[in-house]
């Protein structure tokens, strides 16, 4: 399923003294079975954009196409349930939203809410738990007995159990240690490859964006500054650095090498210049002594 936005603009608290323009002129496409990373500074509009991808927010101007559903400014879409089912959204620190007595009940909550019979919901929960790497013996435990990383997996499994076509995640690795971060990122990469779903995630890690994503959207002050493949985005790293964004370690290393190379080429050029000057002085001397 494809998601795209056309001239999307969004204001919080529209027509009130607190009105705030959060997004403008957003034209992006999330292709089917793709992996998109959204990067940008705090307050650049990343979370607001994510919430348009499953119809949680309605555009102030423009439209959002989610599969065959169009959400337009000024027109309330009556039935967003199919959209919510197809596009699963995981907010920052989703473990804070766990509330059931057992892991299994928490994972089953979404499917049951969408009318799936209990036994089928339990099957979906089992599969989702496997997908996020939770062992079966945890299913009867209270989610609050688990580690932070495991709790987060439970919350993600709860969204996966709805079998979404697109998984939208707001900083899914925030607060995890490097190992937990890598495990979660590998998990999304596997899900995207094996289940053929699209993954859209906000990340502050340029390493992760360059390693896992096939599309990157750079947000800046409420609009798209740049979009493209990691190669497109990181081929002009100085631009990103000027925006105050980080670049992957490998790119930083490459920049350093280039700088060093420039310096040594500079030195060679200088000595060639110097050589040329000396040759010319020598030739002049030669011509005057004849
Ligand atoms: N509920 C809200 N009411 C009013 N303004 C808001 C609200 N939520 C966000 N904003 C404003 O909208 C703009 C975009 O915020 P958003 O949260 O989308 O940015 P972000 O890039 O996700 O930031 P972060 O990385 O900190 O999560 C900011 O100026 C923010 O202050």
From TrEMBL:
UniProt xrefs under InterPro entries: AAA+_ATPase, ABC_transporter-like_ATP-bd, ABC_transporter-like_CS, ABC_transpr_CbiO/EcfA_su, ECF_ABC_transporter_ATP-bd, EcfA2, P-loop_NTPase
GO cellular component terms given for this protein: ATP-binding cassette (ABC) transporter complex
Membrane topology term: Peripheral membrane protein
Keyword Flavoprotein: no
Record has ATP-binding as a keyword: yes
Subcellular localization(s) per the UniProt record: Cell membrane
Family matches, as SMART domains: AAA
Pfam families linked: ABC_tran
PANTHER family: ENERGY-COUPLING FACTOR TRANSPORTER ATP-BINDING PROTEIN ECFA2, HEAVY METAL TRANSPORTER
Oligomer status and interactors: Forms a stable energy-coupling factor (ECF) transporter complex composed of 2 membrane-embedded substrate-binding proteins (S component), 2 ATP-binding proteins (A component) and 2 transmembrane proteins (T component).
Protein name stated in the entry: Energy-coupling factor transporter ATP-binding protein EcfA2
